[in-house]
Fold these 3 entries.
Entry 1:
Amino acid sequence: MALSKVKTRELLEKSKGLLLSQQDRKVQTFAIIFLFFLTIPVYVFALWVLPFSISTIIKYAILVLLIGLTAIFVYVGLAQKIPSSDRICRELALLENEIENESYSTITKTLGNKIYRALNPTVYSIDVHQTDLCKDLLKQSETINDAKLKFHIYLKLYKFYYMSESFDNALGAIRTALEIDPDKIIVKIWLAEAYEYTANGKKAIDEYESINKLDSISSEIMIYIDKQVERIKQRGPRKAPPVTGLRYMSY
């Protein structure tokens, strides 16, 4: 089966809060603290200037409440404006899910459900026969004459190489896949990652920056890409991928 919505949702819940940068958190926190505590001097000043009465206290208690609610609304507005971790992860997970669903329909339609299941890696182990199966399928006439099928077989081959940390081979597979279909954003992200894992930070940056030039890119993906470029420039390319399942959760 393709990736389930339940598993995707579980991954997003676990990753919530880990992508938002410290600067973004400070902006949100400062806004609500500043506006909320602004109500205290206003309240004290009102009690000092105006005649002391129960009605006055009630009026300005209401004023304090309204200003506090305004602070909350501003906080919520900032939270919507600044792409947070769950929305960034959701966007990336949806792109991966879209590719996996497309793989499922393409492979099962031509080669059958049994072959699709055989081409699905597990989190814990990779069977060398899965890599051999991909290579054999790429030699068959059904795959040679079907560009879409060939594209998805190369993606499966890339995943096997990636999970077994054979990054040079993974790079070759993902580049071939993009030659067939260069318009998949998530695949271009995978290519940039493959350049990182083969110690080619410059090409990784170039690939990431080329993604940000696409018209179809969302603000969430744009923020994610900018963070990757910044990370590589500051710390250099990653030497190994993050833990499986935490792929997009750290900068």
Entry 2:
Amino acid sequence: MAKSLVEAAVNGPAGSNRALFFRGDQFVAYDWVQDRAILGAKSISDDWGLPNTFQPPGFAPRFDAAVGGREGGGAAHLQHLYFFHGPEYTRHDWTTPTPRPFEFVDALTGWKLSGPFADGAEAAFNGKGTRAGKTYFFKGGNYARYSWADDALDYVRQIGLIAPGTMPADFATGVDAAVDGDGAYANYGYLFKGRYGIGCQAPERCARQCAPRPCFGTGGDLA
């Protein structure tokens, strides 16, 4: 099994052209314009306050997935960032000073997640183009699509159906993290597993026939 070099990822606030990649209790910042990491590893607790349930006994704070509200939720959620851990999630406000306190903690039922997603999600990103206003959650070999407008779960499907016949077999069984594209890559969403990533449009169509490319060095740094 490939080692998880990134466990969660999310775009920064509107106009920042940055994405944040998380592993354990650390994160690094990536610049979409410069196409490189611009900030070395920092502690999650330096920038965010998290509830005790996000901190297992004897371990530092961590979470399973993250997603921004500015693309999925529209103007009403431009400043919002969501972290997911087990059956719970928190909401943070980008505009508050660091360490940003969580506004609330609630159950995943707030996202209408059920079935295999009732006890957690492993990755998330927002839909693009005709799928704008949708957030996609990934767990194991399945993904779930949530509609912001309807506040409802549209469906749960197998990851392989995102790109039938072209999704790499190892990605079809599950992914480590996902993130919305930004800047010149704003029409894409990205899935990561081990050292590799694939870019998807719509996201029901993957670029380059879902050919994975190395995104991380052997030490886990962004390549």
Entry 3:
Amino acid sequence: MERNQNIEQRILWVAERLFLEKGFNGTSTTEIAKTVGCNQTLIHYYFRTKEKLFWDVFAPKVEHVVEFLDAPLDESIDFFERIRNVIDFYFGILELDERLAPFIVNELIMNPGRWDKFRDRYLRNESRSSAFGRFEKMIEEEAQAGRIRPMRPIDLLMNIMSLTISVFIVAPKGFANGECDSNLRKTYLVSRKEEIKELMIKAQDLRVEFLNCINDDARAFEPLSKAYGLPKEEPGRDEILEKCLKDAAAAPLKVFDLCCVSVELLKEFGEKGSKCDSCTNSSL
């Protein structure tokens, strides 16, 4: 019995290494069996299919990560600090193994079927998503308070994840295999992490300003409508109308300015989301 358990565990260890290094499609059960030193029939006996083996390898790790998502969501601190904590959390997970970022992109994000399974299993299953439930509640409360716009929590989580993963995907040459100087590596990660936090906060502040413009525009319309209704012979009508027109134009003009800021912010997202420096560059 102990020998069988050892073989089963070894299959899981070897499968994890090969899946991370070669991906799901690049790994065969024949190769796993050869590396383990067992008959391929044993793999099918324990796990039936390669897909089931894949989930048996990574499901416990995902559950562990989802469980610990609770930690950054300390309700005693404000929303934006919690978002910064979530970014720190993601970075911490990806720093454990640089193979994780490309693996997540190739095997989860770029695989709709597997992503749907992941979402249904960990984000929609009440028995396994208490942390995500807290995250949803946090977003809902902030939106109701008017501090952020209403949004799907999964969209915000995916935005944070995508920005974080991109740091490791476009990491400097030698980053993952240990050739990169450790001090430069640390500087690179700290710098990118702080940039992502800054960009997320800038984007949220911009959303709030756009929402405020909607309210300002609505408030300015009523006085303008009344001004247009004044009789032409009304004393001071022209001055009243001019003031109301200026007030009514303020919100659209601000929206135009915010659109320009948004374009620049999107450029910044693009540049920093795909930014890659050489590990030999001391100015990291």
